Amino acid sequence: MLPVSGRDGRDGRVAHEGRAARVVGIRTAWTSVGDGEFFCPECGGDRNYQRLTGRRRLTLLGLPVLPRGETGPVVECAACGRHFGTDVLDHPTTNRFSAMLRDAVHTVALAVLAAGGSCARTSLATAAGTVRAAGFQDCTEEQLGALVEALAADTGRVFGEPCVAGLTIELHEALDPLAPHLAPAGREAILLQGARIALADGPYTPAERDALVTVGAALTLCTDDVTRLLAAARTPS
User: Fold this and answer.
1) pLDDT tens across 188-204, in order?
2) Burial class (CB within 10 angstroms; exposed 0-12, middle 13-18, buried 19+) of 108
3) Which of 40, 88, 119, 165 is the most exposed place for a label (fewest CB within 10 A)?
4) What predicted TM-score, i.e. pTM, was given to this entire model?
């Protein structure tokens, strides 16, 4: 009898390997150790998840016979069922990202207003409009003015002074977690928003420029980009 060759031979090998896989295999038994909400890269939106750890076992004829160690942890999407590494949880959910962005714009507006010193009506109006556009729809000029005054009283800071340590810390606390999740254009947009608030009542003061440089650093923008953007904001669009 001649040896089997060609397509029939390949089909025979595939069938044999398939039978072998059904005889001997690896099965993982998963155990849930936590749950929550995350941004699923596969679904492209916020979904519920389970955090799983697993125990692998060698199976013979479908029956577990020998332990083969632990695996995971993994994150399983409740919607699509895909498994991801736990680093996927570092990405904020859509709702969390929106909140981070609102807080960042609000903090930048306050920092620039505090640095400006006079809290001119034009600056307050520009800041309030910027903060409302970011998601704080009930923000008013009066609220921002009161917050700036309270900030100055709390820190003992005189309006128009350079950005002090407490305000620098607040800017970094608001911007540092957000910056890695923003595209370069998004980080530049936040700095430009702050620059337009500063320019609403006239040219930059030294304290306003200092505050904006601090904003740029917290957004991981290089010095040349910060200088370029501050100059661009002075050019009417």
Assistant:
1) 999 999 999 999 999 99
2) buried
3) 165
4) 0.77
